[in-house]
Amino acid sequence: MRAVMRSWAGRVGLVLTALVVVMAVAAPLLAPHDPYRQAVVRRLKPPVWMEGGVEGHLLGTDQLGRDNLSRLIYGARISLFVGAATVVVAGAVGTALGVLAGYHGGRVDYVISTLINAAWSFPFILLALIIVAVLGAGLQNLVVALVATSWASFARIARGEVMAVKGREFVAAAEALGLRTWRTLLRHVLPNVTSSLLVVATIEFGRAILRESFLSFLGLGVPPSIPSWGGMLSEARPYVFTMWWLVFMPGASIFVTTLGVNLLGDGLRDAFDPRTRGR
């Protein structure tokens, strides 16, 4: 943590990410209203500091009279859950395949590399549409679609890093001592590729948030009844030229969260990189 806090990127990223995490975890305590409660008589009210604002609704209300601030706070839960689930599952699958391809080579590497290239060549939106069309819209199916389009990033980086590490002396010494393959990979190979994979994880985390918002905007993500930043953008589309705040607030939330995660990733990369640790 001290190493992360040495860089301005790490400090800013940690603060922004921590604020979003606290907002998501403590949503029931922070939200001033029920995000699902409708009050049509107070629909489309501007923020409280603008003319026509209503006291008690700091950021105004949406087209159904629901409190915008409360929906923003609860929307952080969806974004963080989707980002974390995508990174964990895609990271585990992609890292395992990449390590196997890089360490064993031969036919194993050929098959896995072919799968990686196929995944990179397939358009994201088309694959997401196919998965949603087959499995149906929903939060779990959204995560499946994001994992299917994210694992190749982890696999490609892990494969390249392992190929560079497996020829090092400490790996040869471990093999000469008769260590089992899985033990060599876990104790001597994976720790040396963690830094690169960590950077990929932060990038994919932010990318998952953006893609979730994009799919929810198209109506392919979470159900409209569940508060999400992409869903709020979709609902605000008819009012984009007349009520800018309905678009600005969820868009700014997506921007700040993605920026914080990326900056935190830069700080973690510097902390794990021995070449920058003493700077």
Structural features:
13 helices; 279 residues; MetI-like fold
Can you walk through the features of this model?
The chain has about 280 residues and is mainly α. It has a single domain (about 1-270), classed as MetI-like fold. Helix content is about 70%, strand content about 0%. The protein has 13 helices and no strands. Helix 2 (about 10-25) crosses helix 4 (about 70-105) and helix 5 packs antiparallel against helix 8. The protein is elongated. The mean pLDDT is about 85.
Quick structural gist:
This protein is mainly alpha-helical and 279 residues long. The chain has one domain: MetI-like fold (Orthogonal Bundle).
CATH topology: MetI-like fold
The CATH class label is: Mainly Alpha
CATH-scheme architecture? Orthogonal Bundle
Please, what is the CATH homologous superfamily?
MetI-like
**How would you spell out the order of helices and strands?**
HHHHHHHHHHHHH
Q: Give the total of beta strands.
A: 0
Our Rg estimate from Cα atoms comes to 22 Å
Question: What structural category characterises the helix and strand content?
Answer: mainly alpha
Mean pLDDT: 85
Give the count of helical stretches. Answer: 13
Distance between the termini: 15 Å
Biggest beta sheet attributes = none
